[in-house]
Amino acid sequence: MTILVIAEHTNAALAAATLNTVAAAAKIGGDIHVLVAGSNAGAAAEAAAKIAGVAKVLVADNAAYANQLPENVAPLVAELGKGYSHILAAATSNGKNILPRVAAQLDVDQISEIIAVESADTFKRPIYAGNAIATVQSSAAVKVITVRSTGFDPVAAEGGSAAIEAVSGSADAGKSSFVGEELAKSDRPELTAAKIVVSGGRGMGNGDNFKHLYSLADKLGAAVGASRAAVDAGFVPNDMQVGQTGKIVAPQLYIAVGISGAIQHLAGMKDSKVIVAINKDEEAPIFQVADYGLVADLFEAVPELEKLV
Ligand SMILES: Cc1cc2nc3c(=O)[nH]c(=O)nc-3n(C[C@H](O)[C@H](O)[C@H](O)COP(=O)(O)OP(=O)(O)OC[C@H]3O[C@@H](n4cnc5c(N)ncnc54)[C@H](O)[C@@H]3O)c2cc1C
Q1: Strand pairing of 132-137 and 122-127?
Q2: Whose CA is nearest to atom 30 of ligand 1?
Q3: What angle do CA 130, 136, 138 make, to 5 degrees?
Q4: How far is the C-alpha of 188 from the C-alpha of 299, rounded, in Å?
Q5: Is the distance from the beta carbon of residue 227 to the nearest atom of ligand 1 less than 6 Å?
Q6: pTM here?
Q7: Ligand 1 center to residue 209 CA distance, Å?
Q8: Do the beta carbons of residue 124 and residue 133 sit within 8 Å?
Q9: Distance 227 CA to ligand 1 centre (A)
Q10: pLDDT tens-digit profile, the chain (309 residues)
């Protein structure tokens, strides 16, 4: 049994989610190969070769893979993947863009967002916004799987010494081209990788009031998230949204401020190790999942909290 993990990377560096995906592969068992499809992606390939437990790194280096357009990468993965028992990618925007195409091209079902491995063919995945966990068994010849990174502790980034092998694919499918990108820049940690997340909801009142959360977050070394209501109201950009239709986070500490705790929000953060809720309504559902709840006006509680940090 050999498993192909699709690396998430920027050509220059690997994204942390790759380590969680390799961890899921290790739970399945067998040899683990990592595919780095990119352009001038030598640094990412070398980083992949150092991951603990990886036996081989395949590098498809071609200008057509520079931005990992799924129309170009999916045929490569489908072609290479025929020789593998499993193909895994992180359930990130990138992974969710590539793997369904791979599954279609291999004519198999995709198994989406697994959070646990029961055996080589049986997996657990959340359904109904995380309100139920389905156990799914697949008889597909090649199992195409996206991995929810919060379900698997990352393997060590160092310690391996895998061989690096060049591979080639059909490259440019001619169906799409990369025009440009606008990346949100922040000195704070990335939301899905942060150990502490401070999130604000509609209770913040407006975007300017998020300054209270930014200032607390900077003292804690935390990322700042938001509920969909806060995003929809235009308080903050949508890349800060946590929840069913936002980002899934599972930090050591999640501080929910002025967030009621709708199931769609809980779906994105309820696996956090410690949850703190600050809300002036003692009936707010967020208190049902909170380890520590503070019934208070956030405009008094947050500055008080910041003074104590
Ligand atoms: C298909 C679908 C997908 C969705 N996906 C998401 C998602 O990904 N993420 C998400 O978050 N939501 C999502 N939602 C929306 C979700 O249902 C809720 O509407 C949303 O989470 C509510 O956000 P909120 O808690 O900030 O606002 P509210 O529910 O309005 O809660 C605001 C809270 O702030 C408290 N508050 C107000 N003022 C203060 C104060 N001064 N001090 C302290 N507390 C105060 C109030 O008591 C209240 O509990 C989705 C909905 C649907 C239908």
Answers
A1: antiparallel
A2: 202
A3: 145
A4: 22
A5: yes
A6: 0.87
A7: 16
A8: yes
A9: 6
A10: 999 999 999 999 999 999 999 999 999 999 999 999 999 999 999 999 999 999 999 999 999 999 999 999 999 999 999 999 999 999 999 999 999 999 999 999 999 999 999 999 999 999 988 889 999 999 999 999 999 999 999 999 999 999 999 998 777 889 999 999 888 788 899 898 899 999 999 999 999 999 999 999 999 999 999 999 999 999 999 999 999 999 999 999 999 999 999 999 999 999 999 999 999 999 999 999 999 999 999 999 999 999 998
**The ligand 1 atom nearest the CA atom of 202:** 26
Q: Which residues have C-beta within 8 Å of that of residue 162, sequence separation ≥ 6? A: 34, 48, 49, 50, 51, 54, 55, 56, 57
Tell me which DSSP letter residue 239 carries: G
What is the whole-number distance in angstroms between the Cα of residue 289 and the centre of ligand 1? 15
245 lines ligand 1 (CB under 6 A): yes
Q: Is 243 in the pocket of ligand 1 (CB under 6 A)?
A: yes
